[in-house]
Structures are given as C-alpha cells and as structure tokens.
Amino acid sequence: MSNRSEQLFAEAQQHLVGGVNSAVRAFRSVGGTPVFMRRGEGAWIEDVDGKQYVDYVLSYGPLAIGHAHPEVVRAICDTAASGTSFGAPTELETELAVLVRELMPGIERIRMVNSGTEACMSAVRLARGYTGRDRVLKFRGNYHGHVDALLVEAGSGVLTLGIPGSPGVPASVTETTLTAPFNDIDGVRELCAEYGDSIAAVLVEPVAGNMNCIPALPSFLQGLREICDDSGALLVFDEVMSGFRAALGGAQAWYGVQPDLTCLGKVIGGGLPVGALGGRAEVMDMLAPTGPVYQAGTLSGNPLAMASGLATLRNLARPDVHASAEAWTGRLLAGLRERADQAGIPLLTHQAGTMFGVFFTDSDRVIGFEDVANCDAERFVRFFHGMLEAGVYLAPSAFEAGFVSTAHDEAALSHTLDAAERVFADL
Ligand code: PMP
Fold first, then answer.
1. N or C: which terminus of the chain has fewer CB atoms within 10 Å of its end residue's CB?
2. Is the CB of 114 under 6 A from ligand 1?
3. Are residue 238 and residue 379 in the same domain, yes or no?
4. Residue 301: which residues within 8 A CB-CB, separation 6 or more?
5. pLDDT tens for each residue of 379-412
C-alpha cells in the first residue's frame, strides 16, 4: 500500500470527517487505506506515488468519455476565462437542455440543479405538489441521494413502512415513505391496493446501481408504469446513474418505458457538479417560477458545469461512440467470466450499456437486495485488493456498480484481464 496515501489519509483525518468528503470513499467495507489520486487521463488514473490504474469508478459514473478529455478540458477553460457564475441566465443552459431533450425525447422541460440528491429531492416535492398526495414509494436497495424522505431502509419483512435509515431523520419525515422489494411487481400491487390513492410518486432506479448493478426486469418497469397510470401516482425514474449509460437515451430508451419525471446527474455534468430534473411539461411547469412548487439554486446551471456536460454529451452522442463503449464492456465481462471459469470461481455478471456488475455467486439470478447480500463478500474483498495491487481500480464495495468510458481501449482491456487472471488464481 502506498506510503504517501497513508500519510495523506492520516493528515486528512485530522481535518475532514473520516478523512473524506463522501462516506463511500473511506474503504470502510474493504479495509485498508483509501488511495489518494493525483491525475487521470482517458481510462487511467495515477495515485500520489505514481502508480497507474485502469479506472472502473470514473468518479462513480460521470466520466463517460474518460478523464481529462481534451474537449471537456477546453470547454471548461474557455468558459472559465469569461467568468464562472452570473446568477443570470446563460445560453449554455438552454444548449444543454436541448441536447438532453434530443437524447431523451420524453423530457419536455428541464430544471438544472447541482447534484443527483437535489434532483431527487425536488422530484419528490414536485410530485407531492402536483398530485396533492404525500406518500412516496421506493425500492429496497435503491439509493436516491441523501434526501431525508428517501433514506429509508426496508425492514426484513416483505413490505415495510418507512423507518429512518439514519439518525437525524425524524420518523415523521419517513412515515410517508413506503418501501417494497425491487423487481417484485406483486409486492407493489399489494401496497398500491392499500395506499394507491395517497401515493404521489413511485421512485425507481431502472438499472439499480447502488446494490452492485441490477437491471430491472422489463416486466417490473412496465408493471410500474401501469400501476402509476391506474393510481395517478407519478412514475419517477432515477437515472442519475443509468442516464446516458444504460443506453445513450438512458434506461427509458433501453426499456422503452416512459416515466413522468426523470432525475439526472453524473454524466450530464461530465465530472462537474450537475444534476437535473426533467419530464412532462404539465408536471414540470408546477415548479417556480411558472408554478407554486418552490425550487431554486445559486449555482444551478453554472456555466462551467454546463460547458463540461455539453462537451461530454456532444462527444458521446457522435455516431457509434457510445455503442463501441457498450461493446467494449461486453468484451470485458466475457473476458472476466472466462478467466473466472478457468480458475473454478463462480462469477455472474450484469451489463447495462456501459454500467456493469460482477457477483461472486453460484446463483444464476441476482434480482434484488437479498441476492446481492448473499454473494461471497469476503471473496469480493480479496478480489478488490488483488486488483488494486495489480493496477485496476474498482469501487471499494460489493454494492457499487462499475463503469466504462469511451477511452477504455485494447491496452486497458488486456491489462485488466491479465490482472484478473492472476488475482482469480489466488482467490
Ligand atoms: N441517485 C442515484 C441512482 C445515484 O446513484 C446517486 C449517487 N450515487 C444519487 C442519486 C445521488 O447523487 P449525488 O451523489 O450527485 O447527490
């Protein structure tokens, strides 16, 4: 392990809570010291000791065209030279909105925000304001940012009323949050039979990326669409992760299911802080200033963030760019399965465009939180550290999805598969 990272982490812990600014970075579930990074280029990142890694974290998803892409860097620098923020409208905001609408035609109006959390928080408020109802339904193992009402862990029962998942969240805030198991449409039907006319929104990650990577069953999303149509609840797709990844047009294009509202984040900012909420004009126009549901932000639509997102999406939307990264992801997973097989290690993989998951399990079906929890966690920890040592950077948790960029090339593929072959041999 890197001495420099250990020194920097010891110092950081004196000043930053847990030495990090986002809990997931602290290596708590895999042990050891978080590796401090100093630069990235394309598919590769370099730590503070100069060691190189093929990066499958990509800042937890945003860097769809790789680190420090020249078009993104130029866009940010050129924009910064003319001022970093105005608190007044700029042309870039409309340009990004137009591009997002081209890629996701079901979105008629957009509001830019600064993070995925903000997008989901505003989606809940808007859905409640639009429907005049208070309840929201979410799924076990789905994460929608650190929004009080959505920080709810389902209990061990099949269907559970909301219990706060964190101290500091009042029970009164989560008592209107219902949870159901992911991919269990009958569970949702039962819940809606009882509470349907008081549910404002059904929020779902159409490709779950916060319990490893689990694409929803197509029938599950179609079922949710029907249930929402029947009950009058809004269907909200949290595409903060799956947007511009499951397909260029997001999971809604991949599945052909149209939500009422879509939460975006990550790729839409190309590595700068952006989130967005989009959807049907009739619903979106309930937001201030056209409507009564309050929403605002000092830095929302920030020029640097808009420029970074625009450069990223323009590049990604060129013919064959996203498709070739998807194909690369498929080759990565086939290569990993083959090498695991040779080493006698049961490995299941999931792919949704340029998102992926690997599961150490001999089960052939992982569709919900319990299935992920039943995978071999200890083997994942050894795999993670072996790959890290061998120069492959994976998220430090078996509950995170992996990400591929358009910069992942033949060299990155063979480096990763050679590393995996050696690591699997020792598992
Ligand atoms: N929704 C989903 C599906 C996410 O994956 C995340 C972040 N991992 C969020 C919301 C929250 O986004 P942010 O961290 O930008 O607030």
1. N
2. no
3. no
4. 89, 90, 92, 93, 112
5. 999 999 999 999 999 999 999 999 999 999 999 9
